[in-house]
Design a protein that fits this description.
This protein has five helices and no strands. By secondary structure, the protein is an all-alpha fold.
């Protein structure tokens, strides 16, 4: 009985906090998998850069929720730092992934905007 309650609580915790993180990560991966027409060098501020910041702000926000509601005290204590680090590492992996997508190229400026977005996402999390 106790084991079943614990399992139900873990399942609920996963569905409520970690499943949105996984879905958002898959969405980021899927969007970066689409080939696009080669573009000229984009300006430092463009819709594309704002989109990078926005998608990683949401990702960081979701990661914060998940880490804050974790059973591990170290995750709870350092949830903001962990969220930003995880989002940036995922951003690095996403830029590497784009290297293998036809007509896409990795871009360090995109990674910078991913990191800025990850930090902005923390401003919206009231934890």
């Amino acid at each position: 009985m106790i084991r079943e309650k614990t399992r139900n609580r873990m399942d609920r915790n996963f569905r409520l906090y970690w499943l949105p993180v996984i879905i958002w990560a898959i969405l980021i991966f899927a969007l970066s998998s689409f080939s696009t027409f080669p573009k000229a060098v984009q300006p430092l501020f463009s819709f594309d850069k704002l989109a990078h910041a926005a998608e990683y702000a949401v990702f960081s926000f979701l990661l914060s929720r998940a880490f804050k509601n974790s059973k591990k005290n170290n995750f709870k204590k350092h949830f903001r730092v962990l969220a930003v680090i995880c989002a940036i590492v995922y951003g690095i992996s996403d830029e590497l992934h784009q290297y293998f997508v036809p007509t896409r190229t990795p871009c360090i400026i995109d990674l910078v905007y991913d990191g800025i977005g990850a930090m902005i996402g923390q401003k919206f999390f009231k934890g």
